[in-house]
Amino acid sequence: MRYTSRELKAKKNKKKIFVTAIDLIRKKGYDNVSINEICSLSGFTKGAFYHYFNSKEDLLIQLLRDVDDYYTVEVLPKLDGMSSTEKLTYFMQQFAYCGYGVGVDIINNLFKSQTKVLNDFMNDYDRPFFKILLEIIDEGQKKGEFTDKLSCKELAQYCMSFTWGVLHNWTLENGEYDIEEKMKSYLKVFILSILY
């Protein structure tokens, strides 16, 4: 698909606002950053901000979309040739990698947010992230690697409860330990719980 110069400029502008906002949030904390400050530092008006984002919370949704893109572009191709158990382990380890990249404060705000829009997006099983997870689990159940005592979707929910739980604990500890190493360690026990 080819973009017009106007579309390319719009994508570039949105990205600049987004990157500026995320940098500010990482430095100052989500609650300490205003839309005015984002606009001032990015060189755009509030009108431009609201053209691309409905609210500051939309920045969090964009981060989740970026995670979807990461899983589609980076993670999915690396799953070829792995057993279902290896795929699931790698998939879940990458979640910790993404969490570390996003940062404690932003992850904390994903947990604190009580809006329907963000919660619905986080739990949307039509997102690429969840589609990949469901495919891995479905394959593992069909091959007899994973338990069939839970449906594919229930097992996906179990996996996500586990990974979000590990991330949540990490945020409660203010990121004081290596989340990727902790996830790797916990996964050794978790994976045993879902094997057939």
UniProtKB/TrEMBL annotation:
Alphabetical list of Pfam families matching this protein: TetR_C_4 (PF08359), TetR_N (PF00440)
Listed InterPro entries: Homeodomain-like_sf, HTH-type_Tx_Regulator, HTH_TetR, Tet_transcr_reg_TetR-rel_C_sf, Tscrpt_reg_YsiA_C
Protein name: Transcriptional regulator, TetR family
An annotated Gene Ontology molecular function: DNA binding
Domain HTH tetR-type: 11-71
Residues within the DNA-binding region(s): 34-53
Sorted UniProt keywords: DNA-binding
PANTHER family: ACREF/ENVCD OPERON REPRESSOR-RELATED, ACREF_ENVCD OPERON REPRESSOR-RELATED
